[in-house]
Amino acid sequence: DIQMTQSPSSLSASVGDTVTISCRASRTISRYLSWYQQKPGKAPSLLIYGISNLESGVPSRFSGSASGTDFTLTITSLQPEDFATYYCQQSYDLPRTFGQGTKVQIK
Amino acid sequence: EVQLVESGGGLVKPGGSLRLSCAASGYTFSDHNMNWVRQAPGKGLEWVSFISSSSFIYYADSVKGRFTISRDNAYNSLYLQMNSLTAEDTAVYYCTKEGNSWSLDSWGQGTLVTVSS
Q: In this complex, is the C-beta atom of A49 within 8 Å of any C-beta atom belonging to chain B?
């Protein structure tokens, strides 16, 4: 199985900050990496697919990048509605696997 | 607009069974792979099972031999038959559709399964 190691598990930031969340795959997953946002009591929603493609309706302050098997979600100019938990997920192989999640909290 | 609506969750005793359903609308159901994903209370997301558009099936090791995924393209519906349930299966279960790059581009609202005596 492909393991997805996400870090940090939580972070505190202020409105207007830039935050980065990392995710490392245990082996190659090509471009099959997605990022999801989940707010309390709600279903997750897709932010980014294929490493760097924004899902329709997602603000441009969200971006994704990669270097080998290391993937990064960047949120520039953090907004109040961005405080949530973020997950990475690989869809290169079965079983599909998620990272452990990163909770972005208000400082 | 894509809609996924789960049903069938509830309280069940250890060792019991439950069948979850997911009604899909707003897209061509038969063209897309589908997955079940669950989330235990206060925990992260756990992938459970996959069924392709051509009904190839795969399970997480944690549910293999106990859960059965199926789909009925005539009724635009996805199912998860869950047997031999344990407390570790307590979670919100989400029905999800695969889209671009096999990302999970649509999620249902989730249905809560509680396994307790």
A: yes
User: How confident is the model over B7-30, as a mean pLDDT?
Assistant: 98
What pLDDT, on the 0 to 100 scale, is given for residue B21? 98
- Four-residue CA torsion sign, B9, B97, A27, A95: positive
Q: Cβ A36–B104 below 8 Å, yes or no?
A: yes
Q: What is the enclosing helix (H) or strand (E) of A46?
A: strand A45-49
Residue A3 pLDDT grade (very low, low, confident, very high; cuts 50, 70, 90): very high
Amino acid at B116: S
- DSSP letter for B42, please: T
Q: Which DSSP symbol is given to A102? A: E
Mutate to test the interface with B, among A54, A91, A102 (most CBs of B within 10 A): A91
Residue A60 DSSP class: T
Contacts of B102 in chain A (CB under 8 A): 32, 91
